[in-house]
Automatic annotation (TrEMBL):
Signal among keywords: yes
Superkingdom of origin: Bacteria
Keywords attached to this entry: Signal
Signal peptide annotation: 1-18
Name of the featured protein: Outer membrane protein beta-barrel domain-containing protein
Length: 279
């Protein structure tokens, strides 16, 4: 009886180890074939191992945020993201805003980013830089530059951006600074949980007449769902918006993830559906 009990324990341990090995193998296979756009506020670059071309739809809602993404009310955004080869990633979006007070407006932007460090495979560290152009809600054009960093492992990933924006309008700031960070941990084969943070218009810390109402910060939970054998993946994130500094200038209608109102704190919630054209 004792021998039988020990044999059963041994067999159970062997089976458990085997199951873990199989699970790890499946997970390793999955890394490098997903994660087209896991974060809502940080843009990650693609590689030859990622899904090559994707289209996405994202919607958001904000209160006391004014100016989307950060539009006060319901905002919708359509985008395309693709791998151009040679470590280049194209990212372009067109957004439509439906204001709480009535009225509809739109904004567009497009960027090309190249990985300068890494980028040949999705696993490991990648550092990239890119340039782009945008047209905001008030028809003002801007030049964009972005630095991207990401680190992908089997069971977790993180990404961060530093974005610089120069608006072609004398009433705007000389240069806008926006930074973001996201971290997600795999809790199952298809589900990631984590946190995202965003710092917007950080020049408000040293410019009293900052054109978007002052520096703002958002931090909140992040969820990414990637069903097996599906062309679709889903992400949601959001949280409270804190106004770190305040400006007396009437806020502009620049393209922003969170709001540009200089009085009162608010919140924003954003969800994204990504469709992989190649899977």
């Amino acid at each position: 009886m004792k021998k039988t009990f020990l044999i059963l324990i041994f067999a159970s341990a062997v089976l458990n180890c085997a199951a873990q090995k199989i699970s790890e193998t499946k997970t390793d296979v999955k890394v490098g074939t997903d994660a087209a756009q896991p974060f809502l506020f940080s843009l990650n670059t693609l590689t030859a191992e990622n899904p090559r071309w994707n289209i996405h739809y994202s919607g958001s809602y904000g209160e006391r945020t004014n100016g989307q993404f950060g539009y006060d009310g319901l905002g919708q955004q359509f985008g395309v993201k693709g791998y151009l080869g040679s470590r280049f990633t194209l990212y372009a979006t067109a957004a439509i805003g439906f204001a709480n007070a009535g009225g509809v407006t739109s904004a567009e932007q497009a960027e090309v980013i190249r990985d300068l460090v890494g980028g040949k495979g999705i696993a490991g560290f990648r550092l990239g830089a890119g340039l782009g152009l945008s047209r905001d809600w008030s028809n003002v054009g801007s030049a964009i530059s972005r630095i991207t960093a990401s680190f992908d492992r089997t069971n977790w990933r993180m990404a961060g951006n530093l974005r610089f924006e120069k608006a072609f309008d004398k009433t705007r700031d000389k240069l806008d600074f926006i930074t973001s960070f996201g971290y997600q941990h795999r809790v199952s084969n298809v589900l990631y949980l984590g946190v995202e943070a965003l710092g917007q218009d950080l020049e408000g810390f040293w410019e009293k007449d900052e054109a978007e109402g002052g520096a703002k910060v958002m931090i909140g939970p992040s969820i990414n769902l990637e069903p097996n054998h599906s062309k679709l993946s889903f992400s949601i994130s959001g949280g409270p918006v804190f106004y770190a500094t305040r400006s007396q200038v009437i806020p502009s209608e620049a393209i922003r993830e969170i709001g540009s109102v200089a009085s009162g704190n608010g919140y924003t919630i954003r969800a994204l559906v990504n469709f992989n054209l190649h899977r």
